[in-house]
Amino acid sequence: MKQISLQLPPFAPDYSGACSALFELGGMIVIHDACGCTGNYTGFDEPRWYDGESQVYCSALRQMDAIMGDDEKLIGRVLRAAEDMHPKFIALMGSPVPTVIGTDFAGIAEEIQQRSGIPAFGFLTTGLRLYDVGASEAFLALVKRFARPGASEPKAKTVNLLGLTPLDFYVGGTVKALHSALEQQGWNILASIAMDTDLEKIRDSVDAQINLVVSQSGLAMAEYYKDMYNIPYVVGLPVGSEAADELFSMLEQSAEDGQNRILSSGHGQGNYQTVILGERVICNSIRRCLEVDCGLEGVAAVGIFSPEPRLMGSDDLSATCEDEIETLLNESGCTRIIGDPLFKRLLANDNKAEFFEFPIPAVSSKLYWNQCVPIIGDQIFTWLPKMGRR
Question: Which fold has domain 274-387?
Fold first, then answer.
């Protein structure tokens, strides 16, 4: 019952995250459903759908198909479409109905690959998990399949960006600002996975000296690069001025000693004055900026999607449903809230906390995804002027 929402829409599901991770890479994406899930992704979870080109299809699953389990019908449709579209790969996505009937997506993908000669993936997305899980699984599958095998000598001052989708970073200037900030520090970006990149860059991504994990969905991919290619990673975003310099210093250190690092923060010890709600890495990075650049204490970074213990300190918080978010906002005693505009619906009438709107596409979808809030470098102070700077 905790998962029931009365005020908030459902957050973006796992198949939307997986589709978003693959959107720009020239593959054919097939969502196995009766049109509802495909429409949910293209209409509400993918801002690039209106301006870009991608091969996203619905399998048009019907009641009798579900009852009879006719996988050959799905395979035939995919093969016929592939003959016309010539995709670089084929990706099958699950939805709730195939989950209930136990569709073997891995087996179907293997059959399609053998008969077409085109690389194929079968993702066990269900629509019952959140977007960050689906994106993480898709990113990991990408690098396992397309990254060039075998270790190589890393190229100096090169970096991959791991975990980019519009569900966290919009389609506006955030990614360009991130590229610019790193390039100003002398870093050359090999692969920006998976916005503003392609499969060839992913193949050569193994030459990077270091990986920068910019969202939780990039962490599993970073672990794979470390295990298979011994490429270390840093987790965080260059938000603010002094906090950004701290992150850049971590990149230099990790490139030198090969150790993984995660952007750290102070300890609120339960006395929270400022609460930031959203994706874990983004919230942690904004928190560090408020601590280092603004001198604020008692800043809580609250992850509202899938919990990830590896990115959480002992006193970090999670609020993964409407009830938990509402309780936190109204009972924590905080005086500042940074979060999606829809969270204002959850504030009690007597809650006098100052609210800073930070739209999250995975929460409020198209309602606010054109209202991109800049956070990279000093840009954050254009919308958080009242926080002050030391």
Answer: Rossmann fold (3.40.50)
